[in-house]
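agent> Task received from the user: take the single chain below, predict its 3D structure, and emit structure tokens. No templates, no multimer pairing.
agent> Plan: (1) validate residues, (2) run structure prediction, (3) serialize to tokens, (4) report one or two observations.
agent> Step 1 OK, no nonstandard residues flagged.
tool_call: predict_structure(input=
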Amino acid sequence: MLSERAITAALRFLNRSYLHTAPVDLRRLPAPRAGRGYTLYAHVPFCERLCPYCSFNRFLFQDERARTYFQSLRREMHMVADLGYDFSSLYIGGGTPTILVDELCETIDLARSLFPGINEVSAETSPNHISDYMISALKDRVQRLSVGVQSFDDMLLQQMARYDKYGCGDEVFASVQSAVGKFHSLNVDMIFNFPSQTPEMLQHDIAMVRKTGANQTTFYPIMASPKMRGELARTIGHIDYAREVEYYRAICDGLAPEFESSSAWTFSQEKGSMIDEYIVDTEEYLGIGSGALSFLDGRIYHNTFSLQDYEKRIGEGRMSVAKAGLPYSRTARMRYRFVTDLFGLRLDKERFRADFGVPVERGLALEMAFMRMAGGIAGDDGRFITLNEKGRYLLLVMMRETLASSNDIRDHERTLLPADEKMLLFDNHHPCATTATSDECLAAS
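)
tool_result: status=success, residues=445
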């Protein structure tokens, strides 16, 4: 698909500058601006087992280290409150946030007390964490529970190093079903276009999602950094981007009509449901915790990836930001708005003109011409631009490439960790734990 290749090439070039950060010495993030809305993101970087394809900041779980981390996370939350922030939503990602349910509950309760504007909380979990205890603890605290399933196919689960960890597809299915009806939104996280996934495997996954009774699902395309693309090609096969659009079409058709698009890759049974990509709800967000990102006043801030450095900074009364990008240019901010609005399925032309002083057709003439020529725009009523299925796919490609570039940054940051923290990047179940050097393990993680 020519338009997909063009977007992929453009985003891989542009993201080198848009996502670039350099070390900074900051005690605090910028204070909030009057009249702006913000989302709070909290990162919990611990898992009982580590998936080799995952590029998010995560470490092998150790109880004492994780409890110390949660304490530091809450101290950083107090620092954010001291700056004067309030938030409409709280997203808790990882890692596995439910690794210590008692600590998670204390953290959510503190956030609601410090930031009274929070009316929605989204938290991620793993299938093996779903239990009566977890559901009872979180059902009145969390409005959206997102379960990392990835696939119900046993072969794919084995290739993702998830089969031994979470069980076979039928066991994962039963875990998800046990949480149905307990949360306002129960989301099933899936991956598609994994190198060895066949159309039949994808159709089976779609059918299983529908059978769970969950009222939301997110189908992410495989978002591999350059390092991971090479590793997947060596062990399983090349990622076939040419077939990605066909798989996406199969997902849209297979979930309809009960599930409607909430974003380019999230499908919900209820309109207005909370989704994973919080940039759709508020343009600016603040991240706390090791490895979290913030986007404030048109500038990216990157928190330290090191657990030791994180604890040290918080202990000194500093926030954890370690790197920052250059302020976005006006054009870059217009592009950011273009992508985030359309990823959420419609662009508000009046808000665009009010914020940037030009209509989107003039401010982003090339981008608008491309979307029209590609046949991705469903409607333009003078106020809102909306997308059709092809347009949603093109926005999925934009987000896929942006997050893949972020994964490349995470891969690099892991190479800078202290030696003892690098050892937490793999465990005894990882195939390279006893047969390779730590550097080789890092390359495969």
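agent> Step 4: summary for the user.
The longest strand covers residues 185-192.
agent> Done.
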